[in-house]
Amino acid sequence: MSEKTTRPALFLDRDGVINVDPVEFVTKPEELHLLPCSAEAIARFNALGVPVIVCSNQSGVAKGLYTLEVLEQISERLQQMLSQYGAHIDAFYYCPHDDADGCDCRKPKPGLLLRAAREHAIALEKSVFVGDSWRDIIAGRTAGVKTVLVLSGHVKPEMLDLPEMQNHPPDHIAPDLKGAMEWILHQLNSSE
């Protein structure tokens, strides 16, 4: 098996992990506000050659709040903002559906991670998924990756005792992506 098919990746949810989690949705590029600590961490993973892949639910498309074209523009804006920190995302995977659609890509289902791993020759068992909700943690666990819950988005420290969080504990909890960086690097390095 070639090295390429066994490489680990860093999977990231978008809102609350890379950018500020809005009250509702980011519906246009100018509403996107980067978390600088995340940009710095992404730049570090980029410099180490670790693929950084976004896997994010975007039900605002299904709700008619924005189009797939606008979602692409938001991703382009995110890349522009990250580039100011010497960072970039290697690939974006979005679920544009709502819960009622019954798709296999909407987290907590693992479809986005599985597709990304297949298309980028990623070894899931060597990878890490960072999210800000129980949906992210379940999707990561189901896909077979290590999981990190960051408290920079949806879940706040006072919510850690809620049943949904207790029933789906992550492998690690950190204040934000930068705060999780050393733990993630240890996981990625120990899997080599």
Question: What do you see in this structure?
Answer:
This protein has 192 residues and is an alpha/beta fold. It has a single domain (3-183), classed as HAD superfamily/HAD-like (Rossmann fold). It is 35% helix and 14% strand. The chain is built from six helices and six strands; from the N terminus they run E-H-E-H-E-H-E-H-E-H-E-H. The longest helix has 16 residues, at 68-83. It is globular. The two termini are 14 Å apart.
Tell me how many strands there are: 6
CATH topology: Rossmann fold
Helix content, binned percent: 25-40%
Under the CATH scheme, the architecture is: 3-Layer(aba) Sandwich
CATH superfamily descriptor? HAD superfamily/HAD-like
Uncertain runs with pLDDT below 50, 5 residues or more?
none
- Order of SSEs, N→C? EHEHEHEHEHEH
Number of helices: 6
- Work out the radius of gyration: 15 Å
SSE blueprint:
Blueprint: E1 10-12, H1 36-47, E2 52-57, H2 68-83, E3 91-95, H3 111-120, E4 128-131, H4 134-143, E5 146-150, H5 163-167, E6 172-174, H6 177-190
Parallel strand pairs: 1-2, 1-4, 2-3, 4-5, 5-6
Helix pairs in contact: 1-6
Task: Give a brief description.
Helices cover 35% and strands 14% of the residues. The protein has six helices and six strands; from the N terminus they run E-H-E-H-E-H-E-H-E-H-E-H.
List keywords for this structure.
192 residues; alpha/beta; 6 helices; 6 strands; 14% strand; globular
